[in-house]
Design a protein that fits this description.
Elements (H helix, E strand, L loop, with lengths): L1 E6 L2 E5 L4 E5 L8 E4 L2 E5 L4 E2 L8 E20 L7 E19 L9 E2 L7 H17 L11 H9 L5 H5 L3 H6 L7 H12 L1
Parallel strand pairs: 4-9
Antiparallel strand pairs: 1-2, 1-5, 3-8, 4-7, 5-6, 7-8
Length: 196
Amino acid sequence: MFAVLKTGGKQYKVQPGDLLRVEKLAADAGETIQFNDVLMLGGDAPVVGAPFVDGAAVQAEVVDQIKGEKVIHFVKRRRKHSSKRTKGHRQKLTLVKITEILASGADKSGVKSASGQGAAPAAGKAAPAAKAAPAAAADKLTDLNGVGPAAAKKLEEAGLTTFAQIAALSDADIAGIEGIKVKPEWVEQAKELAKG
């Protein structure tokens, strides 16, 4: 039996026991990971996904984190007074050994996903739902004049996620916030926006 899996923007045809070099994955040597993006299962009864085969997965053991061969990028411009530039690069890769191909039941295996989204998909679906609840209560802080994405991120790190919280700040509270200088205009605007 073989499977065609997708990882790092590439597709690989694998069988149990194969050694594979893939784009760097967030896993340590000796760890077991699972590839959930299976495009096809082959064998006696081939199954082709649309685009992925439901419930199928490929499990592998991480052997090592390695670097690929050096790639030289050389640029030379012709003519007099030309320039030359040489740059080298070694891509970071993960060496994995395929241990098992699951035709079904991938969501119940409990093995960490290779995409770095926690355990198997069943456990991964519960975490985003828990994170979505506080995000729904947060206001869009970039609606304040002078607050860009970077300032909004710093305000959120300081625990200020709603207009009501910013509107309730006193001068002593503003002085106690580290990492960002809260302007008095933001407090006034937040009071207006908190009213609706």
